[in-house]
From TrEMBL:
Keywords: Methyltransferase, Transferase
Domain Methyltransferase type residues, every copy: 50-144
One example GO MF annotation: tRNA methyltransferase activity
Protein name listed in UniProt: Methyltransferase type 11 domain-containing protein
SUPFAM superfamilies referenced in this protein's UniProt entry, alphabetically: S-adenosyl-L-methionine-dependent methyltransferases (SSF53335)
One GO BP: methylation
Organism: Candidatus Nealsonbacteria bacterium CG23_combo_of_CG06-09_8_20_14_all_36_12
Annotated TM spans: none
Taxonomy of the source species: Bacteria, Candidatus Nealsoniibacteriota
The keyword Ribosomal protein is annotated on this UniProt entry: no
């Protein structure tokens, strides 16, 4: 993917989430039950933790249960505004995942829930992971979850954008799609496979601890999760 187009997609994603922030937040009030083990099994009391792409802060109560030193960041000013309204006791900041405002070796764990699939181009995905690695302490954990988009209800979109790419009529990469939020905007998504996610994380120098798929309440709603150590 052309770098300028990737930069455009990053900005588009930021603007899209600012546009839909209130509606999106209302649909993201509850914690996905199938993701709870990522917090119950891995969070340790008193750790310093980054919630990278925290959105409206909906996972903050799980961090609060373990009394961690919590930092939540997102590049959507509107979502951060909502997060601060909901949880004024938490530390939420507007920040760019590709240029994290933290020193080296700062966090015990970095969580990134349903964010990485919005990152366009392999260049920016690698940069994202390198920034996470930079701010993690030696031995720290990355806990990442992306939507599993290899499902029947959006297969036709995969086919459509693949054909356009082959015909030279799309500037997206293979496995990229636009997915609508109602009739308001078309969100950019990359359709990760478990192997692709594993290879990217290992390329940056992480050691994979666990890789799998969560099952949601619907057969269409599954996620890929990965846990890796610096």
């Amino acid at each position: 993917m052309d770098r300028k187009y990737a930069e455009y997609l990053l900005e588009k994603t930021r603007q899209d989430y600012n546009l839909i922030a209130r509606e999106f937040s209302n649909k993201r009030e509850e914690i996905w039950g199938e993701t709870r083990f990522l917090f119950d099994d891995y969070l340790i009391f008193g750790e310093k933790v980054l919630d990278l792409g925290c959105g409206n802060g909906r996972y903050f109560p799980l961090f609060e249960e373990k009394e961690v030193d919590y930092f939540g960041i997102d590049n959507s000013a509107e979502l951060i505004k909502i997060a601060k309204e909901k949880y004024p006791q938490a530390k939420f900041h507007i920040a760019n995942a590709l240029n994290l405002p933290f020193p080296n070796n700062y966090f015990d764990k970095v969580y990134s829930i349903a964010v990485f699939h919005h990152m366009p181009s392999e260049e920016f995905r690698i940069r994202f992971l390198k920034e996470v690695k930079r701010v993690l302490k030696p031995g720290g954990l990355l806990i990442i979850l992306v939507w599993n988009l290899w499902r029947r209800d959006i297969l036709w979109k995969m086919i459509k954008y693949t054909i356009l790419k082959i015909l030279g009529k799309s500037t997206l990469d293979f496995k990229d799609i636009f997915y609508p939020w109602r009739k308001i905007c078309q969100r950019y998504l990359h359709c990760f496979t478990k192997r692709e996610l594993k290879n990217l994380v290992e390329e940056v120098g992480f050691k994979i601890q666990e890789l799998g798929t969560t099952k949601g309440t619907s057969r269409y709603h599954t996620n890929i999760f990965l846990i890796a150590r610096k």
